[in-house]
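Subject: sequence -> structure tokens, single chain

Hey, anyone have a minute? Need the predicted structure for the following. Not urgent.
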Amino acid sequence: MARELSELRHDIDAIDDQLHELLRLRTKIVEEVRAYKHDQRIKIRPAREAEIIYRLFAQHQSPFPKRELFRIWRELIVATLRLEGAFSVGVYMDENDGGFWDLARDQYGSFTPMTPFPSTRRIIEAVQKQEVTVGILPMPARKEDKPWWRRMVFEGQDTPRVIARLPFVPGGNARSASNEALVICPVPQEATGRDRTYLALESNEKIAEAALTKAFGAVDLPIAFTTDCLDPSRPQVWQTLVEVDGFASLDDPRINAIRDAFDGAITRVVSLGGYATPISDAELE
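Reply:
Had a minute. Here:
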């Protein structure tokens, strides 16, 4: 016999009370974690955040939609992150808007302070000075007059690095559904087991894409994207952005092997960070 509607609603209320109590207990533990981070200027840990979503999606066995599950957990993650200290977002917005604001909101919460910036340069400066905690920038393109990633080819604790790619879960209702963006913040990349890494190469000559593809492929770091430009302040220096499929820190022996493959043509390699790969359409099914 079917249960009465009032009984079903009573059970839902009881479950809601349990969820609320668990949320309170989770917040109490987050406050304990905050004590371990008291000496860290920036509290965000993108790899940890991605691993939470990976784990929840992998164990999810329910008709409850995964996209909404993601939104619930992103709001929870960011709300508790803000308990640990100030947190805000800078968003690149040109005259066409581009939907970056929507991508930022979906990843960093409905109530997180967000500031629009008219130029990529200002966002990088704001993140470096920590006027905002993270910045949202358009994906690099193959042909750009003034690529923003050049402004991050520096080594220093305050230099922003790529930490995430948006959208992390596809199928949102951003005004430009096809838009993608990168997130920057001055925190080091950490491995999750499913990562991509951005490397900037400096060389005294233009390096052919085919040669790069062969060298990176030989050390099991397949290239997903690459572009290059001349450094306007040093006309004889080429800068090449390489996005590789995998995690590769500068002390990885494979990076030295790549430098050796070009017989001294590559004079410097700088890690520009990276990201945990977004959820695929197949993982949403």
